């Protein structure tokens, strides 16, 4: 890796170590056409970093694998895949393609950046933690959100300060 790795997550069912960060090269220093996300498959190639078919246009900070479905959830500062598909900061990977969750997390009004920092299981869904105040069209932009809850179909805002127990892993 030629730059920072922010998150490692291991999927025991698939025996894969997923890697997310700021890197644009991985194996052997060659430029990775699919940057910022990779994995190691401990069954077929335990010493080789494998690139996905596509990566992201900006930093990946958060990774989570569902222990039942093996879906990979990815969060960060990105707004598109490296192939050009629009994905606003939160995506799922079902083993074939990356899909945006619901409407994604839009750019915050008045904040310098909109970033997903962590994804954790919470109340039969996922808690998505970050720096944002609007995650879809139509929300009040003067109310900041520190977390969004995803129930498998839709994103819902959790008012700022309601859930404060999660911080970025490196702090």
Number of helical regions: 0
User: Which sheet architecture does the biggest sheet show?
Assistant: 4 strands, antiparallel
The percent range for helix content is: under 10%
Estimate what percentage of residues fall within beta strands.
35-45%
Poorly predicted parts: 135-143, 161-171
Write the element-wise H/E pattern from the N-terminal end onward: EEEEEEEEEEEE
The largest sheet has its strands arranged as: 1-2-3-4
Shape designation: globular
Distance between the termini: 22 Å
How many β-strand stretches?
12
Q: How would you describe what is shown here?
A:
With 171 residues, this protein is mainly beta. Helix content is 0%, strand content 39%. It contains no helices and twelve strands. It has strands at 5-11, 16-21, 37-41, 49-51, 60-65, 72-76, 90-93, 98-100, 115-122, 125-132, 145-150, 155-159. It has a four-stranded antiparallel beta sheet with strand order 1-2-3-4, with no helix packed on it. A four-stranded antiparallel beta sheet has the order 5-6-7-8, with no helix packed on it. The chain is globular, with a radius of gyration of 16 Å.
